Amino acid sequence: MSILAAVGDLLGEMTATPTGQSSVSVYETGRLVSLSPWLTLHAARIRYLLDAEHPTGGWGGPGGYGLAPTLSATEGLLAALRRGDLAGTSDPLHRGAVAAVDRGLAVLGDRLAAVPASALPDMPAIDLIVPALVEALTVHLDAMRDDPVTGLERWRTAPRLPLPPGMTPTRLARVRAALTSGHPLPEKLMHALEVAGPAARRAAGVVPVGPGTVGASPAATAAWLGVPDATTSAARAYLEGVVRQHGGPVPCTSPISVFERSWVLSTLSRAGVPLSAPPPVLASLRDTLGPAGTATAPGLPVDADTTSVTLYALARAGQPVDPSSLRSFDTGEHFCTWPKEDGASITTNAHVLDAVGWHLRHGGARAEHLAPVVRRLTTWLAERQAPEGSWSSDRWHASPYYATSCAVLALHGYGVGASVEPVVRRAVCWVLAGQHPDGSWGRWGGTAEETSYALQVLLAAGQASSDQCAQAIARGWRWLVTMDGFDGGPALWHDKDLYRPSLIVRAAALAVTWWGRTSAGPDPVEAGPSSRSAMIRIA
Q1: Which of 181, 249, 255, 273 is least enclosed by beta carbons within 10 angstroms?
Q2: Which stretches make up the Squalene cyclase C-terminal domain (predicted)?
């Protein structure tokens, strides 16, 4: 299949799937097993958890990335066993669940004590999720002293699970107290409402929105819903719909349509892929933008990351919208993802630089007020480059290749001042040094996604004229095009669990494949359709 045909298929899928496409989550699925045994495909979710367990025990990604998934799967399976959801001990699912819980508790006993809170990845609500699930497991284990589960007798007297060194339940207690007393929670906490335990059920001031979701999260919606009744038909319909999408297990966030559509369109257009964005998709993005910006999904707060990428995607599609909605995220130094954010995101600020820089370049005199913002963001990003040349950590992705690609594309395209060239040059050197012998790139091994980000850096930075860079691009491109499609690979994006937005990842790979086949590639900032006849049109 040609690249343009593959892009056409991708855009067609995106248009036909309004909720977006995301990989399923062990964490989120474990919460539904625990909270909603009445929900359609309950046994399928249990089976998924058993199949997703690592051979040595535990679930999820490497290191600290496996903590929340392992806690959730272990607690969910133990809750199912204690309720008697499964048939007797002769049932293979029952036997599998007992063995998985036994291994999970052993893994957690080692991991919780060994990994300090400061070493855990910057995942949303992890400081609430871990104490909540450790507490839930403690309740189960205490109850098993008098009512043991066959096959788990050794845990009746075992030491109880600790919190990671440096982590306390203080913030969780405050959240629960606020919810119990009727005080409104910050909107961003709705995404992890399940941490509140029984206080989440029909909590005052919490109302499902959009398709019936609380916090765009199946787990948060299930925690609010409890056992459904005639007054909760929208929330139940949301859950029934989301479990059917993957045959039982569920993603962390659904829907993700704004996030998916804006990232796909901006990635493809920046690489110069000749396309005509589907009018319904563009209309949907414009409709989501309000004076305060846009959110990834109904039930989530507006954020600067989604807002800026949406603005950039619309601008490149010939439908620019004034970027004034970003003002409320401006701290005077950088842009926060949302107000009162802890820390700061490299990729959010890179995306804001994209959006603001495009409007400064194309807005003429009426956009001159954006020039100080562009200068400030250029400096802020440059100062946060690691000495070896990467932007090594970001709160929205596990791989430094994503953060580095976002920063380089923004700085090379719209950064100003003498600092830009040496900063970009250091990033190129870091990418060159990180290429695997087979031509790929990746934090834990070569992946199509991370190889795409590395190639974006090399192609965008204009270094293809050097022999070393040209050879690295050729090796990387050859490795990438031998992949059987671009839908495989690990989950690398941060939510309550690692996840993979499949169309966004596929768009990144298609973009650099197109770029690589058009010699050194078009200008990544101002590239557009080369001719009307080459444009892809999706009705």
Answers
A1: 181
A2: 368-488
